Amino acid sequence: MRLQRTAIVLQLLSILLITSVLIAQEATETPEGSTPEVTSEFLVTPEMTAHPQAEAIPPEIAAHMDDWALPNRDYANTRAVPISTINSGNVDEIEVVWSFSIPGRAAYGAAASAPVIVAGVVYFQDLASNVFAIDLYTGEVLWERLYDRNVIGPNGVGIGYGKVFAITGVDTFAALDMMTGQEVWVRTTGDRPTGAFQPVAYGGYAYYTTQAGVAGSGENSFRGYQPGTSGHIYALDPDTGEIAWEFQTVEEGFWGNPEVNSGAGIWFPPAIDTATGLTFWGTGNPAPFPGTFDFPNATSRPEPNLYANSLIALQHDSGELIWYNYVNPNDLFDLDLQISPILATVTIGGIARNVVIASGKLGYIIAMDRETGATLWNTPVGIHQNDDIESIPPGEAITVYPGVLGGVETPMAYADGIIYAPVLNLPTEYDATAFGSADGSEAVAAANERTPIGQGTSELVALDAVTGQVLWSHEFDSDMYGGATVVSDLVFVATFDGMIYALNRASGEIVWSYQAPAGINAWPAVADNTIVWAAGFGNNPSLIALRLPLDQGQSTPEAEATQTPEATQDAEATAETTPGADAAATAQPETEPDDEQASSEFISVDAENQTVTLTVIAAYDSTNGGLNFNGYANGGATYVVPEGWTVNVNFENRADLPHSAMIVPQDAVDQQQLPDPVFEGAAIGDPYAGVTGTAEFSFTASEVGTYALACGVPGHAASGHWIVFEVGSSDAQPAFQTGS
Fold this sequence. Notes:
mainly beta, 5-stranded antiparallel β-sheet
């Protein structure tokens, strides 16, 4: 449901301006262990100069460090709220206190990141790039800025210097006024694609990134791993959007072959050491992977492929490279070090030592010395199979764990010397040429087609931060894309089937669970004893707030008694005079194909031979975030076919992401994983993997009934990617009808 209301002035609670703030990472006492061996391979350690950062934290963040003012709560990315009234003794009492229906949907659902929370306000972005300010206590929308530009994610917003920083499409960075949502500035990225990063403000800059690929040259499209493309890190002036510095994550020359190679995108926010000014970034994989028809087994990119699969330390105010640790050489399989690293101080041999902890799809958790980048320990987690081979024999196909969406895919948490890592055991099938791919874009599509999303298992693993020793692991029978979050003596996780779990931090035992209204591939924020979590995969994508009842030791928050004032005349005038303000603040009607055109374009009839041919186009336009057939979704159109007729389906997918078509029971569309087709042959070859081009299939409509023509890629039908398929009596008139 689209929200249609005029943006009103958001009255933030008074922000205490702190003129001198120095946040040092808190030392944590942990069990002593022997000093691990330090490795130096692929390590650069120039002399490091300390840069005291006494006033570098934006005032909104400095004054609200007890809220969730950053993507992972703090600059150390701990995702931990050590003090909360929510604990293992009362967690079964928490309940949903409000729910916000998320309007924007894209290929990976409606939401894929955490909100930020300051001064009783939740700032949230959906996967159609729409940005909202929501009252933490009531769920009331205070303002909204609607873009309706689908992105891959994970995206999200950052705050600081009076602004909300966001990526508002595949090729635009923007800053919005925190009070009103009005745009302060917009910067285009040109042909560098983005839409997969949550900005962070620090030290007088706003940090943004782009990924490896090509944006749509004015159209909202993203073609990943095009030759000669790299990830980029940008430090922008928060007031103007001007670039202060940028860092290209692939070395100049693209490992000797810019006509083929690419990679090293930046997908997640950095950790920032507020004592030294160092920023720590995990980078993505080199490409193409495993190779192409002309360059099998990565022969286009001889090692080393710097700075892919690396943790890199950059000085925050200059972008100067201080050190890097290249952790995964000879990577054939998209095994990134992509998630946000964690900063901690642990006691090793009686000495406090500053460390940075990194991980990603490679399925290893690695602790490094924060000053030099030297590896202290390296622990594998999850299933590993064929991920360390250096070449695939010609003509063979192999199964690899972790796959392109496996390993540690989403953020870890850290508290009291313990790391909590959500691990996904999901495989991908590969051959040496990415099944005959011509370039990196085709290669990644081939990998996605051969990854059974929604059919994996997962585990939450707890590790000792001193030694890397696994303390416990709890297994789940669903994909885990919900990150890890510590609240008191609990650690919260969520799985793709929409289940939220709270586990005892000491034992890994599940003490509470909750079925969300949709599947989950996002992680929460926690403030004022309220957990705000997006459940974005399904027919009812929602941002929900979980809280203890007020009689469970809570007092009514002060902000709850504060009325949100009416929009002032000045604010209304600003909205009227700001270019594009009306268009952004009001939901636009979804485009629908003309009925007369639809009836001829999407169906043809051969009555003499009792045959009907259906043209089924996935991602026909942007309706429902591109999850549509012929421009319709959620049962908004119907194919009618007489019983006993032959049905030929010509399927076309206009999106870069895989889609498919199959005929299933209509009541199955809410399921993340669809059942087998109801008629023999009534699906493309592998409907669960999908395709990125065209496919055909034929079947006989042998039984009268009302069914669904649905996308079989896990989660897509549940997000609305289906229309009605009706088999009428033998004398029914074949038709393509619009309207639910």
